[in-house]
Amino acid sequence: MKHIGLIVLLLTTTLLAACEQKPYKPPVPHTEPDKLFEPQREALDKAKGVGKTVEQASQELKEATEKATGN
Q: Is 69 in contact with 62 (CB distance < 8 Å)?
């Protein structure tokens, strides 16, 4: 009877040791680091271009208003 308990304990210990978790390794991206955020960079550059256009139009409108009012 004692031998059965010992065998069960040894088998359980062996199984638990065999199921030890490996350290997590994050997946490696398949894209090159330079191209990783390229769509976001393009959208940001486009937004900056629109901002410059709006600022330029605002400045031109301000100058036209000042010229028309004589200030």
A: no
Average pLDDT score over residue span 42-51: 94
What residues have CB less than 8 Å from 43, skipping those under 6 apart? none
CA–CA distance, 46 with 48 (Å, rounded to integer): 5
Distance in angstroms (rounded) separating the CA atoms of residues 26 and 19: 20
Contacts of the segment 1-10: beta carbons below 8 A, 24+ positions apart: none
pTM of the model: 0.45
Q: How far is Cα 23 from Cα 19, in angstroms, rounded to an integer?
A: 13
CB 29 within 8 A of CB 36: yes
Would you state the pLDDT for residue 70? 80
